[in-house]
Amino acid sequence: MNIINLSYQNSLLGNYLKEIRSVEIQKDAMRFRRNMERFGEIMAYEISKSLRYQSEDVTTPLGVAVVNVVDEKLVVATILRAGLPFHSGFLSYFDGAENAFVSAYRKYKDALKFEVNIEYIASPDLNGKTLIIADPMLATGGSMELAYAALLTKGKPAHLHLACVIASQAAVDYVSKHFPENTTLWVAAIDAELNEHAYIVPGLGDAGDLAYGEKM
Hints:
216 residues, alpha/beta, Rossmann fold, 8-stranded mixed beta sheet, two-stranded antiparallel ribbon, 36% strand
């Protein structure tokens, strides 16, 4: 697996990481959602550099220009609900992409033990396409693995990109072992720890709650 950590090079991503992590700034749900969209936009641009292109002639009012355009069929998938703003940012750049959605949630057995459940999937045919799974928080890697397994029921993609804003080192190690070799993982930051509730530390908290309000 190829791992691209965008924080290795200084950029505006650092400003947005500060804002989504800050206990004060992240209280503004609209700003939190917009920053997640920004991460999606920036990551879409970075991923676009790795795609296959073909040349096309374009007629202008004054002649013909040759431009290189993406020559891959893209599907952008996300895990409900936390991934929706991040997903929206990807679509701002990959506006011609198809879309897929998977619901995954933690079903707690007690205060600390839980299992991840998948209850819903909506996806186009994935055979031979480039699949981007956008999930802002990669805590254990379990939700990502189950989401990918669910998506495989809709076909086998030719290429796979996993896009996350913050990942734990444990999750990076996990997906490196459990996903195909031709997978690329894109992250904006990798944090060293998970707490007893399997939340990333320092992380940012619950991305879904911050974007859309606390759930019962």
